[in-house]
């Protein structure tokens, strides 16, 4: 079975004015679609065909000859996770279990916000900022390019923020810190983080 571009959890204009419909048309409609198309071409007729996206990522991560497969498979997964990490009327301080754990593991929401913002702002070039669960504790991570915490044993992604330029350039140009601030204040989907925590 070939992979399909997963549906967005909202309309393409739902995140405006913070992330424009134009950005979604390019980022989701072109970039995310290209990763899906490329992945299908790369695995067609191979022993990876018919495996789950997570299985393909795990196998390809351990084999440097499959770097192209890894990059496209991980980017399909990362982007799908990113769309769900945002919602219309999102943002602000979390509630529920994730709020309790942020206070416990970072000291306060403001300290988490600082750590997450720094991870996103200091990821040189393209990449991702993550909130993950590792050994029962919350941590902030950053990964370059297509890298994903999925490849680390026992690490469970709860949220991600895309800091590739195409995620924000049409709306924020080179002002990555402004995009990061807007992501946290207006877009982040804490319900999704709480659901991933509950499923962990």
TrEMBL record:
It comes from the Bacteria. Its EC number is 1.15.1.1. Keywords: Metal-binding, Oxidoreductase. Residues 94-196 form the Manganese/iron superoxide dismutase C-terminal domain. Coiled coil: none annotated. Pfam families: Sod_Fe_C, Sod_Fe_N. One of its GO terms (molecular function) is superoxide dismutase activity. It catalyses: 2 superoxide + 2 H(+) = H2O2 + O2. PANTHER family: SUPEROXIDE DISMUTASE, SUPEROXIDE DISMUTASE [FE] 2, CHLOROPLASTIC. Destroys radicals which are normally produced within the cells and which are toxic to biological systems. This is Superoxide dismutase. It comes from Ponticaulis profundi. The lineage of its organism: Bacteria, Pseudomonadati, Pseudomonadota, Alphaproteobacteria, Hyphomonadales.
């Amino acid at each position: 079975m070939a992979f399909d571009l997963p549906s967005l959890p909202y309309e393409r204009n739902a995140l405006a004015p913070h992330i424009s419909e134009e950005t979604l048309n390019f980022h989701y409609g072109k970039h995310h679609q290209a990763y899906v198309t490329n992945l299908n071409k790369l695995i067609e007729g191979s022993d990876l065909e018919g495996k789950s996206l997570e299985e393909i990522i795990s196998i390809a991560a351990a084999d440097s000859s499959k770097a192209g497969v890894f990059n496209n498979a991980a980017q399909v997964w990362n982007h799908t996770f990113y769309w769900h990490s945002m919602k219309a009327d999102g943002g602000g301080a979390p509630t529920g279990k994730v709020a309790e754990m942020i206070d416990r593991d970072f000291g306060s929401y403001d300290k988490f916000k600082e750590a997450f913002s720094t991870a996103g702002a200091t990821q040189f070039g393209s990449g991702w900022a993550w909130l993950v669960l590792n050994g029962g504790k919350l941590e902030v991570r950053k990964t370059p390019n297509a890298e994903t915490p999925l490849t680390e044993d026992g690490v469970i992604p709860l949220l991600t923020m895309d800091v590739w330029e195409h995620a924000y350039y049409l709306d924020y140009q080179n002002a990555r810190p402004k995009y990061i601030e807007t992501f946290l204040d207006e877009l982040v989907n804490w319900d999704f983080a709480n659901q991933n925590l509950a499923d962990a």
